[in-house]
Design a protein that fits this description.
By secondary structure, this protein is α/β, with parallel strands linked by helices. It contains 15 helices and 16 strands. Helix 7 links the parallel strand 6 and strand 7. Helix 3 crosses helix 4.
Length: 491
């Protein structure tokens, strides 16, 4: 007979076997489901989260943590797995030394990693098996591309263990190869490309991400020689990048703009403001919509680091480190307030254009003077088929200020030249209502007009503004001392 004690022991053993069987069964099920999940998954290796990728020793192994806006830029800029992606453009207007080259290298490295995690990136994006997938950084010039961005990227790729492990088809396969500006991962036909705005060769690649690094420094069409007829400058490079993205990866590709602004209304400032209104554009900015200063974006920088720069050249420092630039890069007159005052203007809330300040009336036609108290002086800048011909009439009153009476222009069209006769007739009209002291012209095609005015008893002569700086220096002094009183003119 089996006593109660033995029976209880047998029950315990049986329960133990059932317990172990349940654990084994559960683990087998988990293993089966995991295997099935891996078979169904597009990934060779499931991508790790951004924090792990940045700081774990198998990955980038960074020692310094990214700031919140830096992390925001990297995360949004590398969203290339979820199709369709919500954003096709990311704009980051950030102060100089904000770590943009470093961040753009991280963006490229993270993007390459995500592509390598896929079993077959080309199949995943619906491409032919032999189509390369490129991640491109376009710098201002070849030196920046090579010495700054590519140096950062190469260091990341060489030091991270993950890039030696992923995408290797066999022991004989090289994980990646490097040239002067390209890192190629042959196992999955993926490339990291370092380009620059002065070289068009990057436009022949197949990019899923294009980083336009320091885009406000890209040369404009006017800065390049006239014999170079290709589309250049910030606008041209941006347009080309957008077209490449739309044709290659229309639902997932990204154009990323990084820069500090060179002048008010510059390209990056326009994209910063307009981008906030676009659902497909992500603007990295503070909650109030303003850009990050250098020390707000880069945790390794402090406002005190730039104390001397703000003392020596506050205007330049505000542009570089606080994204608050003057009206013009390397401006002859760099104090915007005095220009705004002279023409009764103010910056609009978007800081990309001016608007009427409403302190003085807008003049459409000058009111006839009764009696003729002050002599009027007119200067004309002629043109025939390009730009505009302009005329300004002004006078000086007893307070020693210069008052602008009228600003007028004539514009050529593609089919019609500017009629010089109209300009002469307008001067005659003014001479009936005002006492004209003198009319001056630059030297461009003005001989006949000067002769005619002098013949009709209106004093006229040349006034060159090209031989020396005297005219500009006079203008600058009058503006700074607020002695030019004009009116708002939207042109």
């Amino acid at each position: 007979m089996i006593n109660n004690t033995e029976n209880k022991n047998r029950i315990k053993i049986a329960d133990g076997f059932d317990f172990l069987a349940n654990i084994l069964d559960k683990r087998l099920k988990e293993k089966f489901l995991l295997k099935k999940d891996l078979e169904d998954s597009p990934f060779e290796e499931k991508p790790v989260d951004i924090e792990t990728f940045l700081y774990h020793e198998r990955y980038l192994n960074l020692k310094d943590e990214l700031s919140k806006p830096q992390l925001e830029l990297v995360t949004t800029g590398t969203d290339i797995i979820n199709i369709p992606s919500h954003y096709s453009e990311i704009v980051a207007m950030v102060g100089q030394f904000g770590g943009k080259d470093w961040i753009s290298s991280i963006i490229v490295a993270r993007s390459i990693y995500l592509l390598l995690c896929l079993k077959n990136p080309q199949h995943y994006y619906g491409l032919a098996w032999n189509t390369p997938i490129d991640v491109i950084n376009v710098a201002q010039n070849a030196n920046d591309a090579r010495e700054i961005f590519f140096a950062y990227l190469t260091k990341f790729i060489d030091n991270a263990k993950i890039f030696k492990e992923l995408g290797v088809l066999s022991e004989k396969t090289t994980p990646y190869t490097k040239s002067q500006r390209i890192i190629t991962f042959p196992g999955k036909n993926i490339r990291a490309v370092s380009g620059n705005s002065e070289d068009e060769s990057w436009q022949g690649y197949f990019p899923i991400i294009i980083v336009l690094d320091e885009i406000d420094a890209f040369k404009s069409k006017e800065e390049l020689s006239s014999d170079r007829k290709r589309l250049v400058g910030a606008e041209g490079v941006y347009t080309t990048a957008r077209l490449l993205m739309q044709s290659r990866f229309p639902r997932i590709g990204k154009v990323i703009l990084l820069s500090w602004p060179r002048y008010q209304g510059s390209f990056i400032m326009q994209r910063h403001e307009v981008g906030k209104l676009e659902t497909s554009t992500y603007v990295v900015c503070k909650p109030d919509g303003s850009p990050y200063a250098t020390w707000e974006f880069n945790p390794k920088r402090h406002e005190s680091d730039f104390y001397e720069e703000f003392i020596k050249d506050p205007e330049n420092a505000r542009a570089r480190f606080q994204c608050d630039p003057p009206f013009s890069e390397s401006a002859f007159l760099s104090i915007p307030e005095v220009i705004l005052f002279a023409f009764d203007a103010r910056m609009n809330t978007k800081k990309t254009d001016t608007e009427w300040s409403e302190q003085r009336e807008i003049i459409v036609e000058p009111v006839p003077e009764q009696p003729a108290k002050y002599k009027r002086y007119i200067h004309v800048d002629l043109a025939v088929t390009h730009n505009r011909a302009g005329l300004v009439m002004a006078h000086r009153e007893n307070d020693n200020n210069i008052y602008i009476d009228i600003v007028k222009f004539w514009e050529a069209t593609t089919s019609k030249e500017i009629p010089f006769r109209d300009i002469i007739e307008y001067i005659y009209k003014l001479s009936k209502n005002f006492r004209i002291g003198k009319v001056t012209f630059d030297k461009f095609q003005s001989v006949a007009l000067i002769q005619e005015l002098n013949y009709n008893k209106i004093r006229a002569e040349f006034q060159s503004v090209d031989k020396d700086r005297s005219a500009y220096d006079t203008l600058k002094e009058l503006l700074i001392t607020r002695r030019i009183i004009g009116y708002y003119h939207n042109l």
